[in-house]
Specification:
The protein is an alpha/beta fold and 362 residues long. The chain is 26% helix and 28% strand. The chain contains eleven helices and 18 strands. The strands form three sheets. Strands 3, 5, 6, 9, 10, 17 and 18 form a seven-stranded mixed β-sheet that branches. It has a six-stranded parallel β-sheet with strand order 13-12-11-14-15-16, sandwiched between helices. The protein has a five-stranded mixed beta barrel with strand order 1-2-7-8-4. The longest helix has 13 residues. The protein is globular. It starts with a strand and ends with a strand.
């Protein structure tokens, strides 16, 4: 056992506690990783408040990168010192979704979250890995399928962002919405995922990219990512977006918030025949309604999007090429660098709609 510091969620709705935990040596097919950085994602907040349900007490954090400390029996392609990105949603390769090549819908991707992976040092009580990888800790032990090599040319700390925000935002644009050169795009929510989606739309060659957020303070950040226009969210947002697009509406809307009103607004902001991709994770109480006539009349498409419809093994090398070419700026997603003690404050900022990505740097 090794004692390390971690941010522990003791119960749903309870505040995070900074604690020492015992992390075991890796068993067969496992890898021990020393974290270099971990992003604070809205999904972590959704786990802490019960919107998403997984076993507790848990160590959250699913967007991270670090280096291998040791490997268990049977792990032959990794060695101590190797730099890796954590993959919180490993595909099993055997379920129906995996057989179709839709690895982002793997039925068993989160099975590891139900297994005890560490214990509190103070009393030996069990701890679960929030979304498989428990990145809000100085070190973690994960199945080998939960790590991927950091691509050449990507700094290790920046690589943490590839693990969720960038794969999700980029994938939403390229794999789910399939934005084509010259199309117009609106991105709702200028957080870490939204900023990645804006950059992805720019890379795709979108002719107009409208960023939408409740905060006027995020305009400069959105424009730095590639937004050509900025709209402060209100009841008139669809009308404002139509005014920016020849009274038509955008070809594609990407919703990164997960609220019923935002999903409905994104859908209304697209042209007739337009496409809306929903990335944000909302609660069961967020009911979105449509009438049958408008569905027929507008001919729009509304689609869910899990993890950007991404295959990390396939997509990380492609993202790295964009980074090396200067097309994708990982660092600009980060608006706050914190330590473990700063995670509760980062949660508060997400609730308040402040900033982009907070990054825990170890």
């Amino acid at each position: 056992m090794h004692v390390v510091r971690a941010a522990v969620l003791p119960a749903v709705g309870a505040p995070l506690e900074l604690a020492e935990i015992d992390v075991p040596e890796p068993g067969p097919g496992q890898v021990r990783v020393r974290l270099a950085a971990a992003g604070v994602c809205h999904s972590d907040l959704s786990l802490s408040d019960g919107t998403m349900r997984l076993p507790v007490p848990a160590v959250l954090g699913h967007e991270g990168a670090g280096f291998v400390v040791s490997v268990g029996e049977g792990v032959t392609h990794l060695a101590p010192g190797d730099e890796v990105v954590l993959n919180w949603a490993p595909s099993c390769g055997n379920c129906h979704a995996c057989s179709l090549g839709e690895v982002w819908l793997c039925a068993n991707a989160l099975s590891g979250a139900n297994d005890v992976y560490a214990r509190r040092a103070s009393d030996g009580s069990d701890l679960y890995p929030g979304l498989n990888v428990a990145a809000f800790a100085e070190e973690t032990v994960v199945p080998v399928g939960c790590v991927l090599p950091v691509p050449d040319g990507v700094p290790l700390i920046d690589a943490a962002l590839l693990g969720c925000a960038v794969l999700t935002g980029y994938g939403a644009v390229h794999h789910s919405a399939r934005v084509r050169e010259g199309e117009t795009v609106a991105v709702f929510g200028v957080g870490g995922v939204g900023l990645a989606a804006i950059q992805a739309a720019r890379i795709a060659g979108a002719s107009k990219i409208v960023a939408v957020d409740v905060s006027p303070a995020k305009e400069s950040l959105a424009r730095e990512a590639g937004a050509t226009d900025y709209v402060v969210a209100s009841d008139t947002t669809p009308r404002e977006i139509r005014a920016l697009t020849g009274k038509q509406g955008v070809d594609v809307a990407v919703e990164c918030v997960g609220r019923a009103v935002t999903i409905r607004t994104a859908w209304e902001s697209t042209r007739r025949g337009g496409r809306t991709t929903v990335v944000g994770i909302g609660g069961k109480d967020q009911q979105v309604t449509f009438n049958a006539l408008e569905i027929f009349h507008w001919g729009r498409t509304l689609a869910g999007c899990v993890f950007g419809n991404s295959d990390p093994a396939r997509d990380l090398p492609m993202l790295a090429e964009h980074v090396r070419a200067g097309r994708l700026d990982l660092g600009m997603l980060v608006t706050e660098r914190i330590d473990l003690e700063g995670i509760p404050g980062a949660f508060e900022n997400m609730v308040a709609g402040k900033g982009g990505r907070a990054l825990v740097v170890f």
